[in-house]
Amino acid sequence: MADPSAIVEPVPAVANGTFPAPDAAGETVAAIAQAETVSAADEIALYDRQIRLWGLEAQNRIRNANILLVSIKALANEIAKNLVLAGIGSITLADHEVVTEDDLGAQFFVSEADIGKNRAEAAAPQVQKLNPRVKVNVITRDVRNEQLPAFYKSFDVIIGTDTDFLSLTTLNAGARIAERPFYAGSSHGFYGYIFADLGTHEFVIEREKSNRPTAKAAETATRSVIDFQDKVENGKKIEMVTKRELYTPLMLAKDSPLPPDMQKDPRKLRKVHPLLTCIRTLWDYQRHGHGTFPSHSPADLQFFTSLAMEKHKELKLPAATLQADFLKSFIGNLGSELAPVTAFLGGQLAQDVINILGKREQPIQNLMLFDGEECAGPVYALHPIFPDNPIPAVAAMPIDAPVMVI
């Protein structure tokens, strides 16, 4: 079996380049840039705020993590920035396409001089400058149909961004086989989404102890309390609650119903954002080979509109909540990038990755949408629901099993 590391080339530091605009996450950049080799004490001081937030053990898991980031566009720029500044161990940028003029609109790791260069190779030196402690690798081939299970096993988290539905499900399948967390994300102008499939994930919630006793029991169809411990901190009784969350792959979530409590409540159904229908329609459009995005021909627009109405009915949503104006706006935004939207989505996705690496806080379960016009970010749990079996079991597969490309 081939060694996955043999196909990943490390990127050397480059002297010249530009930094992205400073922001809250960039508070550590100046300190990091002062020296490439520091003592453990210096590193602890550098990440002191993070360590105080989630503990030294969690920070150690973060600093040893190896992340795969596929398709290096504007959203991936934001994800890479936040993860690298948080002090992950290494990040591998995978992209087989080249920088175009369109990439210059919302991306800050590439410049006009990079047009025609491979996108991952062009971005890597600027990513490296953010944190010399993080190892930055590059893959310039198309990994979306990677067949080596060991390839996926070599990463701690796999993230696919701004690529088509079938490519995302292939990456998701590889992550499932390797028992690795998977994230998908995409931005379309004012709109976007984050999807998470973490398989089975355990995490700890720290909260002030209440008078109501905590029980080891199911909280939802996907979440259970499996342990709890008490401690005293600053004179307060604190409870450390360990929970287990079960997830569904993207291929199953695409057609999954809304949670039963929403289906039974007309008021909740009226509040479901129409972006849910539009995103699921786009997935279905790509899944059945109609193309990446609909063209602006009358026939194509009519077909996409009919498909959206069908998907809206499948979700049992009121017809009045899918307005023609919103659908027209969604189609018009497809394929475009807006920096404020990618900044929000990238920050949210990166923070969720940090949470799951540190095994603290509730992760996204399992689809988060973003409407930049309304500044709305609803989260929907999409899972196949069956009697007496809330979440379908996904059979464990040996690590040398072939990846199924659907």
Architecture overview:
The protein is 36% helix and 18% strand. It is of the alpha/beta class and 406 residues long. Strand 9 and strand 10 form a beta hairpin. Helix 5 (74-86) packs parallel to helix 6 (119-130) and helix 12 (274-287) crosses helix 13. The two termini are 23 Å apart. Keywords: Nucleus, Ubl conjugation pathway. This is Ubiquitin-like 1-activating enzyme E1A. It holds the Pfam family ThiF.
Fraction of residues in β-strands: 15-25%
Q: Please report the first level of CATH classification, the CATH class of the largest domain.
A: Alpha Beta
Low-pLDDT residue spans: 1-39, 392-406
CATH architecture of the largest domain: 3-Layer(aba) Sandwich
Radius of gyration: 22 Å
Main location: nucleus
Organism: Lentithecium fluviatile CBS 122367
Pathway: Protein modification; protein sumoylation
Keywords: Nucleus, Ubl conjugation pathway
List keywords for this structure.
Rossmann fold; three-stranded antiparallel beta sheet; 15 helices; 406 residues; globular; disordered C terminus; alpha/beta
Question: Topology of this protein?
Answer:
Elements: E1 9-10, H1 29-33, H2 40-46, H3 48-54, H4 56-63, E2 66-70, H5 74-86, E3 90-94, H6 119-130, E4 135-139, H7 149-153, E5 157-161, H8 165-177, E6 182-188, E7 191-197, E8 200-208, E9 223-233, E10 236-246, H9 250-253, H10 260-263, H11 266-271, H12 274-287, H13 298-314, H14 324-333, H15 339-358, E11 367-371, E12 379-380
Parallel strand pairs: 2-3, 2-5, 3-4, 5-6
Antiparallel strand pairs: 1-4, 6-7, 7-11, 8-10, 9-10, 11-12
